[in-house]
Amino acid sequence: MTDYAEEQESELEALESIYVTELEILSRDPIIYNITIPCEMKSVEVDGPTKEFMVGLKFKLPEEYPDVPPQIEFSECEELDADLQKSILIELNKVAENELGCVMIFTLVSELQDKVNEYVDNIYNKKMEEKEERDKVPVFHGTPVTLESFTEWNNKFIMEKNMKKEKSTDCDSALIPLL
After folding, report:
1. Average pLDDT of the chain, as a whole number
2. Is the separation of the CB atoms in 56 and 40 below 8 Å?
3. How does pLDDT run across 56-68, given as a tens digit for each residue?
C-alpha cells in the first residue's frame, strides 16, 4: 500500500528547495499551494523595456495523489487571455494523466513555463515582423511644403514656363516665310 501522505510531503519538501520564493503553501490538510513563476517579454525596440509578469498555478492534491491527478487552476495570469489559459490547463491535465503514479508538480510547472515561453516568443516574433514591415516603408525626406514655399515655387514655375513660351514664339515667327 502506498503512503500518499509521505510522498506528498517529500515532493513538497523538494519543491520548497527548488521554488524557494515562488512557492506559497496555502494549506497542509488538504495540501494546497501556489507556485508563481516569473516571466518576461522582450521589447522589439533596441534598448526597449522588458515587460515582466508573473504566472501562477494553484495545486490542490487529493488524498490519493500521485495516483490521482492534482486539481490545477491559475492563481495569477494577468498576461494570458482566457482561451490561452484554457488551452494550457488542458495540456497540463493531459501531462498529469500521463504522469499518474509519479509525483508530477515539477513536471507540470516546467510544462507551464514552456507554454508561456512559447506564447511570449510568438508575440515577440509577430511584433518583430510588424516592425520589419513598418521599417520597409520608405520615409520621404525633403523640404516641408508651406503656403509660402509653394507660392514661391509656383511663381518661379510660371515665370519659367512663360519664358519658354516666348522663346518658342520667337523661334516660330523666324521660320515663317515672308511673301
Report:
1. 86
2. no
3. 999 999 999 999 9
